[in-house]
């Protein structure tokens, strides 16, 4: 009975030693793995890549307006209607298609007689009627020229106001994909140059984030944190930015 108890005690001691050894061994493995993981997560290089391209607008939107003022609303409306015909005839004569012209509804403003202090009274002095015309076309050059010459309508008695055209690039979505790929390649090249200067090389890309997309006049270097989308210039410059992180290999 005593020998059996001694054997049992020896087995318990051996089991305890095995558990202790396993715990120590596991701790060493886990610590080594943790240090490797920490090293892997810390040894990265973060860079910013960019790509630029000059583009030419392929769509133009031009807004203009004309107005008539009269003491009688019907008289002002009749005059405005005649002016609309002159405006449309003029645009068509310049080669603009009917389906490129959009005429807005008539806007009416009541004009009140002013008192000696310059404030409006309740007496109606007349009416001001205004109508807008929008031209949207892919023939950018032609519309741009017409917009500059349209003040010729003033010689026909039309109170015409020509707005500044807006210029757009309709293939922007496709261009963004191409430029983001170029910006990513630029980021990788920068990371490789930085790593090689210290005798290292880069591994897998760890993360990538698209930056703001800048569309500016061709000679402009303005940037903003929310991005630019210039519509004032015919020729534009597009810039894409990518922030990327790469693993470093020794």
Topology record:
Elements: H1 2-42, E1 44-56, E2 59-70, H2 73-93, E3 101-103, E4 107-114, E5 120-137, H3 140-149, E6 160-162, E7 166-168, H4 172-196, E8 201-210, E9 214-217, E10 228-229, E11 235-249
Parallel strand pairs: 9-10
Antiparallel strand pairs: 1-11, 2-5, 2-6, 2-7, 3-5, 4-5, 8-11, 9-11
Label this structure with key terms.
250 residues, alpha+beta, Translation Initiation Factor IF3, Alpha-Beta Plaits, 3 domains, six-stranded antiparallel sheet, five-stranded mixed sheet, 39% helix, 36% strand
Outline of the structure:
This protein has 250 residues and is an alpha+beta fold.
Structural notes for this entry:
- There is one protein chain.
- Strands 2, 3, 4, 5, 6 and 7 form a 6-stranded antiparallel beta sheet that branches. Strands 1, 8, 9, 10 and 11 form a 5-stranded mixed beta sheet that branches.
- The protein has 3 domains: 42 residues; 97 residues, Translation Initiation Factor IF3 (2-Layer Sandwich); 110 residues, Protein of unknown function (DUF541), domain 2 (Alpha-Beta Plaits), CATH 3.30.70.2970.
- The chain is α+β, with helices and mostly antiparallel strands and 250 residues long.
- It is 39% helix and 36% strand.
